Amino acid sequence: MEGDNGDGFAVVADEVKQLAEETKDSANDIEDVVEDVIGQTQEAVSNIQLMEKQLEAGSETIEDTLSSLTEIADITEETSVGVEEIQSAAEKQADTALEVTQMSDNVRDESETVAEEVTEIASLVEEQSVGIDNLSQNIEDLAEMANKLQGQVDTFETSKTEE
User: Fold this and answer.
1) Are residues 66 and 122 in contact, defined by beta-carbon separation less than 8 angstroms?
2) CA angle 139, 44, 40 (to 5 degrees)
3) Tell me, what DSSP letter sits at residue 163?
4) Closest to 70 in 3D by CA, of 125, 122, 124
5) Nearest-5° angle of CA 42, CA 45, CA 47?
6) What confidence score (pLDDT) does residue 160 get?
7) CA 18 from centre of chain
8) Can you give the pTM of this predicted structure?
9) Which residue, 73, 114, 117, 127, has fewest beta-carbon neighbours within 10 Å?
10) What is the DSSP letter of 93?
11) CB atoms inside a 10 Å sphere around CB 88
12) What range does the domain containing 84 cover?
């Protein structure tokens, strides 16, 4: 009977040893997965930071373009005022009134068309700027979430290392 007990303990010991090895393998697999997640998180943070820099550069370019378009609109408005003054002076000249008036009207119409188009472009650029600002905010939020996730992963690694 004592021999049977010894064999029973040996079987249990073998099963415990096998479970311990499986547990060790599972722990190694988990460690590999965690390291992979950490690598992917770090890559995501890096990509988000790069995108944020690119968006900032794009936003600056749009702001510069908007400023230039505003200057063009101002100059076009000044041109339109000048055309109206030319038209007024032309009316005083009886011999060339018709020819000068027609030229002034053409220039004014073109100036107004250009002014409308520039105003429309400026409006579109401003809308894009708002969209980019919103996208930039979303990217900043994603970067913050990625940083929080990185902190949690670091905490997990610290806890794992202490064990």
Assistant:
1) yes
2) 155
3) -
4) 122
5) 110
6) 61
7) 51
8) 0.35
9) 127
10) -
11) 10
12) 2-162
For residue 67, give the CATH number of its domain: 1.10.287
Length of the chain: 163
- Of the chain, the percentage scoring pLDDT greater than 70 comes to 84
For residues 158 and 14, what is the distance between their CA atoms, to the nearest angstrom? 33
Domain count for the chain, please give it.
1
Task: Report the largest interatomic distance among the alpha carbons of the chain, rounded to a whole angstrom.
Answer: 138
- For the stretch 85-130, pLDDT in tens is 876 775 666 556 566 577 778 878 878 887 788 788 778 778 887 8
Residue 130 DSSP symbol: H
Structure tokens belonging to residue 28 = 């190694």
Tell me which DSSP letter residue 110 carries. H
Check residue 4 and give its pLDDT.
Answer: 62
The separation between CA 112 and the C-alpha centre of its own chain, rounded to angstroms, equals 36
